[in-house]
Amino acid sequence: GVVLFIKGKVDLISEDKNQDVYQGTTITENSTIKTYDKSTIEIVLDKRIQIRIKENTTITLTKSENLWKIFQEQGISYHNVKSLKPKENYYVETPSAIAGVRGTFFYVNNNSDKTEIEVHKGNVIIYTKELESGYIQLKNKGSLTPNNLFLFDKKIKKIEKKVAKKSDLDVLFKEMEQNLSIIENEELWENLSKIPTTTNKKDIEKVYNKRVEKIHLVDGRILEG
């Protein structure tokens, strides 16, 4: 995958190492992304799956042969799944529920009090994770259609499925679709993919065939780039 957009402080942990994150950074399999206050990151996987991760959110991406799995420990994420290959599956998992999709746009909000899943486009199958005889069992709670909301109140262990109130999902969907159009331009996508995932001056100068410039500001700060 690759980063389309980033704002604020974001950690990318891959192979137990922290990486610097900026537009064009490559996201590898089995990576963890953690955002902080007032931070947002948007990534695209295999040109078909777009994820926007909001502030104070932690997710881990894993990919096997036919399965995309997004484990969302906490926070809010938006998912725009354009298409999946035959036998391919995409799941967003929280500590208490799993959402499985084919092609859709939906969001997941998970915190200490609740897990909330709302669908704007397509269908999402919901499973809850329930403890029985010391083992976690998955319980199929049916599917959500557009403008449907699934809510699991963890404190009172109550599950609701209802029509969602007016939300900003339509605005967010159009905004993310516009961002996704970047990858439809093959030349632009190729150039974006070539942006070096490094902060080493010599590597950057070699890629762009230009020297890294240094600017001394009157307030004493020094900017390089």
Structural description of this entry:
By secondary structure, this protein is mostly beta strands. It has helices at residues 169-180, 186-193, 201-208; strands at 2-7, 10-14, 17-19, 31-35, 40-45, 49-53, 58-63, 67-81, 89-93, 97-101, 104-110, 114-121, 124-132, 135-144, 148-153, 158-163, 214-216, 222-224. The strands form two sheets. The chain has a 16-stranded mixed beta sheet that branches. The chain has a two-stranded antiparallel sheet with strand order 17-18. Strand 13 (124-132) and strand 14 (135-144) form a beta hairpin. The protein is elongated. The two termini are 24 Å apart. The mean pLDDT is 87.
Main sheet overview: 16 strands, mixed
Low-confidence stretches: none
Shape, please? elongated
On the 0-100 scale, what is the average pLDDT? 87
Proportion of residues in helical segments: 10-25%
Gyration radius over CA: 20 Å
Helix tally equals 3
Class by SSE composition:
mainly beta
Strands, total number: 18
Estimated share of beta-strand residues:
over 45%
